[in-house]
Amino acid sequence: MLTELAALTRREFLKLARNPQAILTSLMLPLLYLLLFGQGFNINPAQFLPPGSPPAEVHQVVLTYFRGAPDYYSYFAAGMVGFVSVTATLFIGANVIFDKLFGIFKRTRGTPAPSAAVFGSRLIAGAAQPIALAFFVLGLALLFGRIPGLNGMDVTANVGALGAVEIVLAIVLLSLMFATLFLMFGILLEVPQTYFAAVNLLNLPVLLTSDALYPWGSMPTWLRNVSQYNPVSLAVNVLRETLFGASYYPYSAGVYLLGLFAWSAVLIALAIFLVARALRPVE
Amino acid sequence: MGERVRRLDRGGFEDLKSPRTHRPTGIGATGGGRSARVLDTEGTRMEHHGAIVAEGLVKVYNGSIRAVDGVSFEVAPGEAFGFLGPNGAGKTTTVSMLSAGLKPTQGRAMVGGIEVGRDPEEVKRRIGVIFQESTADGDLTGRENLEVAAGCYGISPSEAHERSEALIEQMQLTDAADRYAKTYSGGMRRRLELAVGLVHRPKILFLDEPTLGLDPQGRAGFWGFIQKLRRETGVTVFITTHYLDEADTMCDRLAIIDHGKIVATGTPNELKDRLGGDVVTLKTGNDRKDLTELIRPLAGVASVQKQDGTYRIKCASGETFVPIAVEACARAGAGVTGVTVKRPSLDEVFLELTGREFREDEGPTATDRAVILQRVQGAMSGRR
Q1: Are residues B263 and B294 in the same domain?
Q2: Looking at the structure, do residues B323 and B249 belong to the same domain, yes or no?
Q3: What does the pLDDT look like over B107-156, one tens digit per residue?
Q4: Which of A131, A223, A244, B314 could bridge B302 with an S-S bond, Cβ 3.0-4.6 Å?
Q5: DSSP strand pairing (B261-266 vs B278-284)
Q6: Is A107 close to B149, i.e. CB distance below 8 A?
Q7: B261 and B289 fall within a common domain
Q8: Which strands sit side by side in the sheet containing B114-115, from one edge to the other?
Q9: Is-contact B82 B253, C-beta < 8 A?
Q10: What is the pLDDT of residues B220-239, one digit of tens each?
Q11: How many angstroms separate the CA of residue B119 from the nearest CA in chain A?
């Protein structure tokens, strides 16, 4: 199993390395969001307060509005980490469909390589991209904070070793979950158009019902209620709590991680069941 | 996993390198390889000798389309078995069922001594499949394609590297080994796919329309490799092809499939002999004289037809008949001015068996023409 997994994973990474355009394109989206959207859309709720409000009150309003984050950019940058963890997995299943169309998938299935190796290799390579991208976003947002004239992420909490582990876990779990989901679509579906339709049908509602980009203070109650179960929100909550403090969250980062873990377990179990069925000899 | 493969290699593939003592030739011949003892679906012990055994295979799609309809045959170890039929006859479906890619609706198959439905993974270890469509990974180099394929069979990276090097050399891909497969010509791609199919040293090779889309040079090169492989390893080869001349030259035995059913099995010559030998066309210098009655009693003649001064004669052997006929006509004062001998092609066999042409444009093949011309020339020079 390990030899097969290693061989197939090597193939995935070789293909990835030979497509620098795809890597460059995947960097462009977060870069544009951080460099343009984040800079231009840096809302400040204090502007709605009466002039001359005491600084402590202003500070409190800002913290409440952004759930502990000192400004929108910091709040949004943590959300972007969750955002790219989803969007960078979109193509993982499309690659499977193209491999089916080119006969490469058939060749792999003609070998005794276990389904777990076929699935696992694509999952490893597919999840590596969003994970790397998520850390790229985090690093870039922190870097921008040190460049004069640019908005950047301002970490206001003490991030210890445990906090760092929690951040890594949140990013890995979220990326793995969506990579699994879209990989499952790719294995189950045969036509690229159907795949992209299915992915868009899922991708947009998931992102738009999360609190990745909306300021918490501006979200209606019903959307807040929905978003607290959204896996993207769960991951982003872990990041925000760790980076900006836990005062504005009803649960600890560990609880959100547990929720994320439950989501991942359910989706991965479903994927294993459906993919194992799909990879059996055709009835 | 790697150890398991090595063990199989010692017990399987290398066994086939020993000289074969029996080559089946007759219709329905099954050969004399090692027997395989297996349990059938009811749990009773059964014994088979064939490398590939199909028993009443049926594949029904969408509840009503019978793509394969009760196909049974046995291929002996070391044999090259051709599976012929027009598009949609059920060839690829049969290969898919035999190579554990498709579950039969009914019937069962044993490949390499393993019942396909019981242990498909083990079957996959024992076979190599060259698919109809190109399956080489264009973004990987030839060498990488081979190493990844080897890894899929649980072969360790170092062993995979060694095997890949050997196959690259064997398939004459050394200069192109580090080029992306997408830059290969059709023939090179096919050779790479053959190498990929052989990297785990299978006992049985399935070639599903392997030369489709190749130019004549590419086709000849590909079959050259297969012949060499058979000589060196004694691998069993199951071929489906559209090219009847290839089947004629390459296969020890053939099965003709039409509408999902096997309509005939035999060696290429046995199948052609069913049509009653050769067709000889004679043209004489004297159109007014009817030589029908002179020709009819000559050796091996089955029928004579005269059309516009040309005689179309069906006879057992053209090479025996022509010199006798030429001499008889000369004695009767009607010298022969033209003669052609045509061996019945497999296309005519197909026409005879199914009532329709295999391919509209299929005539006597270049190989047929070359062989017959050689025979006639040899026979005539012998008479002189």
Answers
A1: no
A2: no
A3: 999 999 899 988 989 999 999 999 888 888 999 999 999 999 999 999 99
A4: B314
A5: unpaired
A6: yes
A7: no
A8: B65-75, B52-61, B106-111, B114-115
A9: yes
A10: 888 888 898 899 888 999 99
A11: 10
How many of the other CB atoms lie within 10 Å of CB of A147? 9
Total structural domains within chain B: 2
d(CA B218, CA B184) in angstroms, rounded, equals 12
Average pLDDT over residues B307-316: 82
Write down the domain spans for chain A.
Answer: 2-278
> What's the domain range around B160?
2-270
ipTM score: 0.83
Q: What does each C-alpha distance from B36 to A161, B112, B233 come to in angstroms?
A: 61, 8, 20
- For chain B, give the mean pLDDT: 78
Tell me which residues of chain A, numbers 254 to 283, contact chain B at a CB-CB cutoff of 8 Å: 281-283
CB contact B2 to A (< 8 Å): yes
Burial A91-115 (b: 16+ CB within 10 A, else e): bbbbbbbebbebbbbbbbbbbbbbb
Give the least confident one: A33-47, A166-180, A184-198, A201-215.
Answer: A33-47
Calpha distance B371→B278 (Å, rounded): 13
Of B250, B270, B290, the position where a domain reaches its end is B270
Joined tokens for residue A159: 């991030």
0.90 exceeded by pTM: no
Residues B214 and B336 in one domain: no
Query: How far apart, in whole angstroms, are the C-alpha atoms of residue B261 and residue A145?
Result: 74
Percent of chain B with pLDDT over 70: 79
Burial of B269 (0-12, 13-18, 19+ CB in 10 A): exposed
CATH number of the domain within which B291 lies: 3.30.70.100
pLDDT bucket at B8, cuts 50 / 70 / 90 = very low
Looking only at the bridges linking them, the beta strands covering B278-284 and B336-342 are antiparallel
* Rounded Cα gap, residues A38 and A59, in angstroms: 20
Q: Are A133 and A91 in contact (CB under 8 A)?
A: no
